[in-house]
Amino acid sequence: MRHLLIVGLICAMAAPLALARAIPNPNQKHAPGNESPQTPIAQAGYSTPVNYQLQCAGCHLGGGEGSASNDTPRMKDFVGNFLKVPGGREFLVRVPGMSQSALNDAQLADLVNWIMRPDGMAGKSMPEHYQPYTTEEVSSIRKVSMLNLPQARAGLIAKMREQGIAIEDGMTPQY
Ligand code: HEC
Q1: Nearest partner of 156 among 89, 108, 64, judged by Cα
Q2: What SS3 state is found at 167?
Q3: Are 48 and 41 in contact (CB under 8 A)?
């Protein structure tokens, strides 16, 4: 009788161990049709608007509206103004969202040039003579990190003000 009790107790204690399994299960199969390993975005060959949706829109929103409550400036009809002040061209590629993105240099150059269109996000903020970014330019700019982003940005905004540019970035109070 006592033996039976001990065996019963051992069985009860061992049950959770028998049920336990490794997560994720190393023997699990891929879902049908989903067997190939994921392709990194830098090799995926998506179009530029799709790259924007995947890498940028989460913060900047679909049309570049930005979101003041999330400290994300508006790009729509404003971002082109950075190209009108010295240092702005480099700043645009050095912000972490750009320089640290998973896109390769050519994709990033295409993306900035796609943003900088009179009928695109930059809209009415486009400078008169736009020089498209090249892959080589983006490659060398993105390697240099920005040490003090808020200070660098504030300096560029101050230079825009000197030129009489309205600071419609959705972040800065108008006065
Ligand atoms: C995690 C959120 C986030 C992601 C993702 C992101 N950004 Fe940003 N971006 C910001 C914030 C916040 C700023 C303001 C400067 C700063 O704090 O970095 C900014 C600044 C910028 C600026 C400078 C404009 C200004 O007014 O300062 C550009 C241009 C820009 N981002 C483009 C992009 C692009 C293109 C991508 C995608 C490849 C991207 N960002 C991804 C949050 C993000």
Answers
A1: 89
A2: coil
A3: no
> In terms of C-beta distances under 8 Å and separation of at least 24 residues, what long-range contacts does 171-174 make, across chains too?
171/66, 171/68, 171/71, 171/73, 171/74
CA distance 89 to 142: 11
CA-closest residue to ligand 1 atom 1: 59
Q: Which CATH architecture has domain 45-162?
A: Orthogonal Bundle (1.10)
Can you give the pLDDT of all 175 residues of the chain as single tens digits?
678 788 777 767 776 666 666 777 888 888 898 888 889 999 999 999 999 999 999 999 999 999 999 999 999 999 999 999 999 999 999 999 999 999 999 999 999 999 999 999 999 999 999 999 999 999 999 999 999 999 999 999 999 999 999 999 999 775 5
Phi and psi dihedrals of 70, rounded to 5?
-110, 20
* Cα–ligand 1 centroid distance for 100 (angstroms): 10
Pocket test for ligand 1, best of 55, 60, 147, 157 (most atoms within 8 A of CB): 60
Task: Report how many helices (DSSP H) and strands (DSSP E) the chain contains, helices first.
Answer: 9, 0
How far is the centre of ligand 1, averaged over its atoms, from the C-alpha of 128 (Å)?
A: 23
Domain edges within the chain: 45-162
Residue written as tokens 């190393």? 26
